[in-house]
Amino acid sequence: MNLSHPLLLRIALLSLLLLGACSEPPSAVVPLSPGGDFTLATAAGPLDTRSLRGKVLLLYFGYVNCPDVCPVSIAAGAGALNALAPAERERTRMIMVSVDPERDTPEALKTYVAYFHPQMLGAVGSAAETAAVAKQFGAGYVRQATRPDGGYAVDHSSQTFVVDTQGRLVEILRHGTGAEQVAAAVRRRL
Length: 190
Known about the structure:
It is built from six helices and ten strands; from the N terminus they run αββββααβαβαββββα. By secondary structure, the protein is α+β, with helices and mostly antiparallel strands. Strand 2 and strand 3 (45-48) form a beta hairpin.
């Protein structure tokens, strides 16, 4: 392959960056964003994270129609919840915050997350509320163009954000972190 062509060189460099990112071992990173409280809609009504003080929160930004990344991360969260003792699980909540407020309803989110674990919560807000919460945690997402069939994808961050019992963002778990590692992160904060 002739890498003297600028487009080919860019593609090669991007490929190397992506491969490097994929080979990185799953681990926690120090949060750069402050996190913070928020109120979003759930199927059971408004969810104000201040009402969850005393619980460790696992926040994940995703969407119901996500074909690959969300199921892996949410399954790891479900595995972590299952690995916790009942008393530990009672003091833990995993919340999926939708990055697709156009399609995800509170009811659709409830059905989706319940498939993984009955104690998970799905929360959604308006486009402005979603952007504000994502910014608080340093999560990113971009809605892609609508395809001819009317569907679209939303590219998004794949980390799980760990919030301690006092409501502070204390840890960020990379995509691919296993259930036992997620459970260990929860236990460190209980």
